[in-house]
Amino acid sequence: MSNLFVHDNKIIKNQSFDIVFTRANDIVQCEYKLHESIIASNWYRKITHLKQIPIDPIESYMVDLSNIRELYSKFCDYTQIDKDIDLVEINQEALNQLHVLYETHHDTLCKYPNNEILYQFHKSIHYHEIGGYPDKFVVGWGKKEGPVSYEFLCNPYYEQSIQKNNLYLSWIELGKRPSDYYKDKEPNSQKRINKLCKPHITFAANFFIAYNNEINTFDEDFEKWFSQFKSSWCKQYGLSDWTAKDEYSAPLLATPNHNVDVKEIVQDGYKFDSIRLSSH
Questions:
Q1: Domain boundaries, the chain
Q2: Residue-level pLDDT at 280
Q3: Is the pLDDT score of 3 beyond 50?
Q4: pTM to 2 decimals?
């Protein structure tokens, strides 16, 4: 991952910006106040570079992810491999097999041109695992982001809970968080857990606006299962612990200076248009 864009410890204060939504000729501007933190300030610096670059429709869930059989077929055609995974029934076992296939080819295909099918195929796998699109408004640039993405452990900046209409940094790792790994019935293997489970270690510009207030806790069965693997996994990533906050929350980037219900306008057909930064 490129390190051309470095992390700055200087906090930006008293900064606001607009998230602009449009529908036909109608415009809704939602003003946000930048959270005064190191991670929010560095996100804002990224946005100053990306504000004129079109967002990625796959990362922003603007494409159809429902037909995983068709996307699997296109992925195999692009990769020139045989279609040998049985998709008569789209169950978790089949989705796990598809994810392993994606992992196997990602490092090679991510360097190829016109490789959108790689990312659409991956998003479709997770779409079927969670039963549809995420219940939040997601914006991302994907590979268009380029050198403003870098490695940085974001978990220490996670909020205790998610609040409706707030704007947060997205977790975008090429893997799964531990409770998803458990829920998806992945192998009980320390080696596989250490490879596939990821904390928030990629600081990209992708963000989301929460549709609902969320306070989550761990299932007791998950905690009992993960206790046998947690120490080794945490050590690998330099973590002292892994809590429900790490699993379900996110770093706060901005709070609303508006009374718009973002979920409501998106359901009414408004689409993301742009980010407008203040001059001060």
A1: 16-61+134-277
A2: 52
A3: no
A4: 0.93
